[in-house]
Structure formats: C-alpha cells, structure tokens
Amino acid sequence: MAKILILGAGYSGMTAAAALDRNSEPFTLINNNAYHYFTTLLHEAAGGRRPPMYYTVPIADVLRKPTSTFVQDEVVSIDREKKIVHCKGSDHSYDYLVCTIGWVPEYFGIPGMQEHSLVIRNVDTCIEIRQHIEQQFQQYVQDHDVRHLRIVVGGAGLTGIELLGELLDWIPKLCLQYGIDRSLVDVQNIEAMPTILPQVSEDLRAVAYNRLTELGAKLRTNTKLVRVEAGVVHLDGDEQVEAGTIIWTGGVRANPILTEAGFTVDRRGRAKVNEFLQSVDDDHVFIGGDCAWAEEDGKPIPPTAQAATQMGPLLAHNVTSVIHGQRMKPFHFHNLGTLASLGPDVGVGVMMNVPVKGVVGGLAKEGSKLKYLYQLGGLRLAVDKLADVVDI
Ligand SMILES: Cc1cc2nc3c(=O)[nH]c(=O)nc-3n(C[C@H](O)[C@H](O)[C@H](O)COP(=O)(O)OP(=O)(O)OC[C@H]3O[C@@H](n4cnc5c(N)ncnc54)[C@H](O)[C@@H]3O)c2cc1C
C-alpha cells in the first residue's frame, strides 16, 4: 500500500486529513501540536477575547478511524530524492507527500523587525502578546512611564485591523483592572500603503476606519516603518515612536522548508503547482494552502484560509486518485468573500458579493467558524464548540 504523508494540520492539511479519514484511506499526519488551531481567529486570542485554547480542536477529535495515524513532531526538512521527511524526533518515508506546512511572517528585510516585534503566528505567540501587554500595564503602575501604554501595530491588512478591533475592546477592561486612565493608552497602526483593508471596498474601509478611530486608535497610512529597535520604531522622515509593545502583521511568506527542498518558488517562497495541486517539480508531492503557488486564469490565488480549506479535500481526492489509478480533478477557487471583525460585535466585509457591516458582519464571521467546524467534523464538532461559547 502506498504511504501518504501529510505535513501540517492547518486549514489545508487538516481538511485533507479529515477527507482521507472519512474514506478510511490510510495516511500519516505530522504536526507540531496535538491540536489544530483557527488561524483566522488568532487576533481574538491575542486580544484576550477568549482563552487561547478555545481557538483549537484536538486532532484526535477529527481523526477517528484506525486507518489514520497522527505523529506530533516538528518537520525540519524534506529529502525529495530519498522520499524522506526529517523531523526533530524521527524520520518518515513516503510514497506521496502532501505538503501543507503554512506560512511564516514576512519582515521585508526591515532591520530589527524580527528581533524586536511580536507576531500573530500561532497559539503560543498569541499568549505571548497577551502576557506582554498585561506586563506593560503592570509596569506602568510601578513607574508611570507612559511608553508602556503605547502599542504600535505594523500593517493594516486583515490581521492588523482585526487585531486592533480586539485590542480596543480589551484595553478599557485592562485600564479598569489596573486603575489606569484610558486616555493615557495610545494605540497606533502604521501602514505603508495608502489605504487600510485593501480586500474590501472603499465605503467598507471607511466604516472600519471610523469605528477604530472612534474607539481611540490612530490609523496612519502612507507611513513606512524603516527600522525597529527594542521599544522604538523608526518611520520614514526621521520620526521615532517609542512603544512598550510592537506587533508586526505586515506580511507572510510560505514556510522556508519548501525553498530549502528545491521546489520552484515565487517571490513569497510558495512552490509552483499544476492545476491538480501537484508540484511541477515532483509528481509525488502535492502542495496546498499558503505553501502553494497555484494560479487561476493565469493569476496567482492569494494565500487565504478560504483557498486552503477548498484545497484540502481536493488534495485528498487527487493523491488517492493517483494511487488508485483514477482521474485527478483540477482546482477551482470559489471566492465566497472576505470578512474582517472589528472587535467582538461588529465586522465589515463581502459575502457572496453582498457587502455586510455592523452586527451582521460580526455574526457572519461567527457563522463562518461554525460552518468550518461542520466541514471538519460534522455536527459533533460544531455543536461542541457552540456549547463552549454559550456555556451549555
Ligand atoms: C489573524 C489572522 C486572520 C486571518 N483572517 C483570515 C480570514 O478572515 N480569511 C481568510 O481566508 N484568511 C485569513 N487569514 C489567513 C489564513 O489564516 C491563512 O491563509 C491560512 O491559515 C493558511 O492555511 P494553511 O493550511 O496553508 O496553513 P496554516 O493554517 O498556517 O497551517 C500550517 C500548520 O502547519 C503546522 N506547522 C508549521 N510548521 C511546521 C513544522 N515545521 N512542523 C510541523 N508542523 C508545522 C502549524 O502548526 C499549522 O498547524 C488570517 C490570518 C491571520 C494570521
């Protein structure tokens, strides 16, 4: 029996594994955690909305068939010639590889950014952000240095804007907890491009801008971060902003393991695939999610959870088709829209070509999470998580 090895249990790897599990098709999944996490909601975890582990699902709750094997380990490299994946704990051979190990932050070579900023990358980094901000507030109570109360968020894409929404909801609670005047807390967003949230229309951007500024954030577009030192960001035009917390959300690139394995990659390190999500360099390797350089009508498909979850089931179908001598299916991306939350209650975005905003936008974001859980584990998982939220 041909051995299928899946690397990474994110949106694409987990949905691929769930599909193979449902069909009792044997495979091994390697992931660095024993849980799958909802990357698209990590800003909520970082901003203190719910405990970080709320944003996870144990992999064992999704993969229930004896044909499915899970190994918790960290992938280090891929030897395509020998068809071996080297991990920290042990090595694993494969006949067919499904590579879905996601993304890493893109720092665009900004000096000091990697060393001196926090990032939303996984559950652990969100815990780090929460703890760091809370420590800064505690520090202010000790020394009354207002720099501890300044938070700079670099990047006004989906991640940066959604994070701002969460922070602006959390800050008044922290102020109350530590007896700090809210007006002393300074939250700044710095964006090099002329607009925030490029994914949505101009009027929805205005809704987001107004909401966040009313809640007390300063949003600065057309402003470049050029260098970062401990506690200081340097902007173009020689301006400096001293801040106790610096968070970078400015970009992502594919996991560098793909470039190191010698795949043909684009400028963001994503490995080129054909219409079947099969590597153009190696027909024993399928690639999905943020690792895949896939194109539709000659244009690259942007790296999103939406694309990753659509790719997962197709990766499962195509890898088993190759093994069983059946026809593979081509990938077609269906853009269902983009939603950005602006704190717990409201959001903006487009769903099925219809603009949504306000409470409807917020509810739509919650709904998309339940729909995803249903895709992963049917009613059982969706109802379990709903019970967590409403405490039943
Ligand atoms: C805060 C935030 C909000 C977002 N909001 C949206 C949104 O609203 N809509 C949208 O479509 N997209 C959104 N995105 C983008 C989206 O989350 C990504 O495109 C998506 O996660 C990519 O899925 P993936 O399966 O490729 O990788 P991931 O979901 O990142 O999964 C990769 C998996 O591989 C594991 N892994 C990584 N390295 C290793 C290793 N060396 N060894 C073992 N395991 C490893 C990781 O732990 C993870 O489980 C958002 C991103 C962020 C950060």
What can you tell me about this protein's structure?
- The chain is of the alpha/beta class and 392 residues long.
- The protein has two domains: 4-105 and 252-335, FAD/NAD(P)-binding domain; 113-248, 3-Layer(bba) Sandwich (FAD/NAD(P)-binding domain).
- It has ten helices and 27 strands.
- The protein has helices spanning 11-22, 42-46, 59-62, 113-116, 123-143, 158-178, 202-214, 257-260, 305-323, 358-390; strands at 4-7, 27-31, 35-37, 56-58, 68-72, 75-79, 84-87, 91-93, 96-99, 103-105, 118-119, 150-154, 186-190, 217-220, 225-229, 232-235, 239-242, 245-248, 252-254, 271-272, 285-287, 292-293, 295-296, 299-300, 337-341, 347-351, 354-357.
- A five-stranded parallel sheet has the order 5-2-1-9-21, covered by helices on one side. A five-stranded parallel sheet has the order 11-18-12-13-14. Strands 6-7-8 form a three-stranded antiparallel sheet.
- Helix 1 packs across helix 9 (305-323).
- The longest helix is centred in the C-terminal third of the chain and has 33 residues, at 358-390.
- The protein starts with a strand and ends with a helix.
- The protein binds flavin-adenine dinucleotide.
- Flavin-adenine dinucleotide (FAD) binds at residues 8-13, 30-33, 39-40, 42-43, 74-75, 100-103, 120, 122, 158-159, 162, 255, 289-291, 303-306, 308, 339.
Number of helices: 10
Query: Going across the major beta sheet, what is the strand order?
Result: 5-2-1-9-21
How many domains? 2
Largest sheet: 5 strands, parallel
Show unreliable segments: none
Shape: globular
Q: What do we call the CATH topology of the largest domain?
A: FAD/NAD(P)-binding domain
* DSSP summary, beta strand count: 27
Radius of gyration: 22 Å
DSSP strand (E) fraction?
25-35%
Structural class of the helix and strand makeup? Answer: alpha/beta
Main CATH class of the largest domain: Alpha Beta
- Indicate the mean pLDDT: 93
Cα end-to-end separation:
44 Å
What CATH architecture of the largest domain do you see?
3-Layer(bba) Sandwich
Helix content: 25-40%
